[in-house]
Every structure is written in structure tokens, then in C-alpha cells.
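Session log. Operator J.P. requested a structure for one protein chain; no other inputs attached. Running the standard single-chain path with C-alpha cell output.
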Amino acid sequence: MLKGSIIILDFGGQYAHLIGSRIRRFGYPSYIYPCDIDPKKLKGVAGIILSGGPQSVYEKGSPKADTGIFDLGVPVLGLCYGHQWMAQALGGKVAPAKVKEYGRTSVRKSQIANRKSQIDLFQGFPEVWTVWMSHGDEVAELPAGFMRIASTKDCVNAAMMDSERRLYGIQWHNEVTHTEHGMEVLKRFAELCKPAQWSIKSYAEHVGAQIKKEVGDRKVFMLVSGGVDSTVAFTLLNNVLGADRVQGLLVDTGLMRKGEVQMIEEAFAKLGIDNLHIEDASEEFFRNLKDAYDPEEKRRIIGDTFLAVQKRVSEEMGLKMEEGWMLGQGTIYPDTIETGGTKYADKIKTHHNRVEAVQKMIEKGLVIEPLKELYKDEVRILGEELGLPHELVWRHPFPGPGLGVRILCMGSTEETRSKEISNVHIPMTNAFSVLPIRSVGVQGDGRTYRHAIAVFSDKPTRITEALLELATQVPNGNKEINRVLLCTSQSERVEFSVTPGVITRERAELLREADDIVLQEMRTADLYERIWQFPVVLLPVGIGRGEKGQSIVLRPIASTDAMTANAFLLPPEVIKNITERILRLPGIDAVFYDLTNKPPATIEWE
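Structure written below.
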């Protein structure tokens, strides 16, 4: 540990490494440690940040830090769960909030006495600004010595400080890009700590040294998906180890985007990378997925099939993991966090590169993941440092399991799900229907698996501020709901029915065509690089116009790191063009637009 660094104590949320990356961006060293580290080991640090977490501080077994950190005499900033733990640890009270806040929230600055001894992190900010919340508890009573410095309409003690001891607590997430002035708050706190200096420009050299140490004299068999992460990881391994010590494998799962395999092959050829083998294993993937409905089961099957194909191909090429080879993956930090990969983190979803078989290989030291501590924005910076072309580095993120987690599946017994919910409250007059299908969300840093509602409007391709506000209010006020959709293909309310089905080549081809329509329209409207990611989702839900009716969900989002996301607002004419073209596809009954931010929804549906 470097003297003068800023330490982030990890309480198990999704944000500890994101906070660390923000601090590094400011030019200061940061390190992450478990929240229960002995304070004696922190002697000499410049400051401490307490991260968020999915649990409640008053629950038995919830993560706790040692209160000795407050005796180190350095500034301490608590965020979300860290804010609540600080309050409770120092004599305040934390209780369940009457209204849970997820996503965009307006915060108002409190009036603070003008004393020179006070260091206000919000000085110069407007009276009201927008922040990103994700909590179900609140600080009900402040500890002695603290004063309130900000509130929301539903959370009185949204921020507090004891300026004499330089202790600060903030309920919202300043580390995410959707919080206004969030980076300024972190930077002001970092400067208050007076830390040492650090430069991200040498990161490629730093990671390269780690690769050489971890790989030793072994070679690497790298799984390449064609996405940004695996492309950067594969290129980095080639640069550091040399092409003679790296073998790439691109598996055609049958679940990739239209023309993607050819595009990837041509892109690597332009880079002069010819150590990539392409294997068509689509039949194997479809066969293994033929009875899978549950999202987690699908991810497990896809991950296990990847490994089975890798094992078969490597043996056919005379390469064996037990004989001097390692498995390479483009895993980044959100993959690890969402799989519950840290001590107190909640599992949001199992990534295909974190299935049980991979975990066992990791434990044996047979896996190299050079990007595992980075976020997407840092991966892109690294990719540019490696000289990768702009169109590769800034491609929209695409999940490793591909369309397999964008094709939702249901059995016939699940058709009655929508009837289970009869008390959904919507604070406006819009007609709505509960969709008879559930999707994954993230609320209070924890996983949810809940229903979506479809709202109908007389102007179905126009997204209003009232609809966006609805997308926040409904999940906050209804425990059964985590997404709000606008139906762009119908203006009047309809009832939906289930079309039972699993992942098949036919359904994959249907979604591939819808996805390609969206890509074409984004290029035509010059919107592609303004949108961070655009999942297109196939639902086994129809409106009775055919025996096998299905629906498409449009999910354009704005983000930088995938930890938080806004629903990106497409112009009405673009929504209209996409909707009309998709409705011409065989068997598509309806088109929806996902208006929900992250949180409470995840970016992907599964």
C-alpha cells in the first residue's frame, strides 16, 4: 500500500471499484480493501471512503468496519450503505425508509452556518440538483456532532457532516455519472485528503507487468467474443506475450448479431492478428438450451458450453490446460461484482465467465483475466493506448452469451403470472397492462426478479417527462414492479398472452433481424455513438393476433460504466420508423420502449 493513498472500504455493493477508478482519474492513488480490515494496517493513508452495499446495517451479520478508522485522524466519506453504517457506528439511528428511492432523485441543500472551520463538499452548488439513489433504509437520527447538509422530499438526512473531524456521509452515489456534481464532490473530498499522485497513462505497462508475472512461462488460450472487453484483452495478451504464446478462439454460438463473425474476422485481419480460430458450435448451443427457461440456468448452460467447446477445440489443436496453458477471458469488474464475486456483494446474475467450472479453474490458477479490475470506460482508454481502431473500441457492449440473454423464455404454466398482480398503483391516468413475464432488476444494490408494466399513450412514439417520472415512481412504489415500458405499437390498452417457447435457431434469427433494423436506423439517424448500448429483447408475449405472437423491447441507454444508466430518448420519428419496420417481421405483435433507468432495472433484461 502506498503512503498517502485513498482507501475504499468495500461493503459489498457494486461501486467500490468504480469509486477507485474515479479517484485514479483525478490523478490520485486508490486501493480497495474489505470493510473489516484492521485499522492498524491503514496507518499513513490519506483518507477513507466507505462504499455502498446491498444489506441493511441493522441486520444480523451485515458488513461492518472497525470504528477505529475514525481514530486515524484522516477524512472519511461514507456513501449509501457507508453513510448509514457511519451514522449507526457513531451513535445515530438507521431505519427502514417510508419511501424507497431508486434512480433519479432531486436533492436540496440545507442551510449551513457560515463558520470557517466547516468544509462543505457542496459549497457553490445550486440549491437543488439531481442525484442517483438506490436505497431502502435511511438515517433517521444524526450522530452527535453531525449536521444535516442535504435532503430529498422522502429522505430528510440525505447528507451529513462533522466538519471538525472531517467526517462526511452522503446517501446517494456520487461515483456514478448520472449524479450531477458527483465527480466534483469526490474530487473535493480527494483534495481534502491531500493524497500522493498517480497517472493512468502508464496503466498498460502496469497491467503488462501483472500478466507476465501471472502467466510465467505458460501460454494462453483466449476466448474472444468480438466485444470490446475480449478484443482489448486478446490484443493486450498478444502485445505482452507475443502471438506465439497466445491462441484465440471465437465461438460462433448462433446467438451473435447479424454478420458479426465475418466482421470480427476482418477486423482482426486488419490488425495483423492471425492467431484466431473460428469454430461454428451453434448446433451444440441450441441443443443444450432446448429445455432452458430460467435466466440463471441459461447463463450456466451457455458458460458450460463455451468451456466444452474450448476444451474440444484446444485438444483438437493439441493444446491442453494441464500442460502449460491457461484460459484467457475478457472479464471486467462489473462482471465479477454482479456475480457476487466479493465478500458481501449480492448476486445480480451469473456471467457466463463466472460459472462454477470457471470458478474451479480460477482456484487452480488456470485462468488469466487481465481486465478484471477495470470498468468499461477504463478498458476503452486502455484499448486506445494499445492503438486499436476507434470503431472497435467504441462498439456498443454486447453480452458474452449474446442473444441468449435477450431471448426470454417461458413455459405454458407461467401464463397466469400477470393475474397475480392486481394492486399496482400508477400515479397518473394512463392505461396499463402488467406483462406476464419477469426480468432482472437491481434495487438497493440487490437483485430483484419482477414484472414490467406496459403503459399506453395516444401518442405512442412520443416520450414525455411525465412518462419518465412514471418510470421512477412505479418501481419505487410497487414492490412487484421493476420496469416501466411504453407500448409504441398500440395506443389503446390490450391484454397480453404468453407464447411458450425456449431458445431456438428460429427465434434467434427473428431477434437478429430486429436487432439489425435497430442498428440500421441508428446509423441513419447518426445516433449510434451517442448511445452507450442498445439491447433489443424478444419476449414470448403476444396480443392474440396469431397463435405464436411475440414482442420486441427497445432498450437504448446512456451510460459510461454500466453501473448506472439512463433510458436514452430517441426522437419520435426514429421510434416510429423502428416500430413500423419491426412489426413487419413475422410473428411480432407489439413493440415496447423500456423507459426504466438503472437502478431499478438492469441494462439487460436477464
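Operator note: The longest strand covers residues 93-109.
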